[in-house]
Amino acid sequence: MQAVIRFLGYNPLPPAKGLSEQLVRHRTSLGITQKEAARQIGVDPGTLARWERSEREPKGPLLQAVRGFLARETDEVVSRRVG
Q1: pLDDT digits over 10-65, tens only?
Q2: Could you give the CA distance from residue 45 to residue 39 in angstroms, rounded to a whole number?
Q3: Closest CA to 22 of 47, 55, 52
């Protein structure tokens, strides 16, 4: 997905409507697994999976961690993962 975004110059995925869709869209755009995204946010993969399915919502410090994850630029996160 990363290469597609670079080639097009924009993200072709539909806009996210809620936090769960934002998480999935951002993670997919980064080309990373739930396990890797959960590690970057600081939660276990099961927690992230529940957030992505809208079964639960992050609150307090976890919501701040999610916002930080969503605010990171695609290239920044990928370069940190690779480097």
Answers
A1: 767 777 789 999 999 899 888 899 999 999 999 999 999 999 999 999 999 999 99
A2: 8
A3: 52
pTM value?
Answer: 0.75
Output Rg (C-alpha) for the chain, integer angstroms.
Answer: 12
Q: How far is CA 29 from CA 8, 11, 21, 26, 50, in A?
A: 13, 7, 12, 5, 19
CA distance 50 to 79: 27
Q: Which amino acid is at 23?
A: L
Q: H or E element: which one contains 33? A: none
Q: For the chain, which domains are there?
A: 2-82 (1.10.260.40)
For the chain, the farthest-separated pair of C-alpha atoms sits apart, in whole angstroms, at: 37
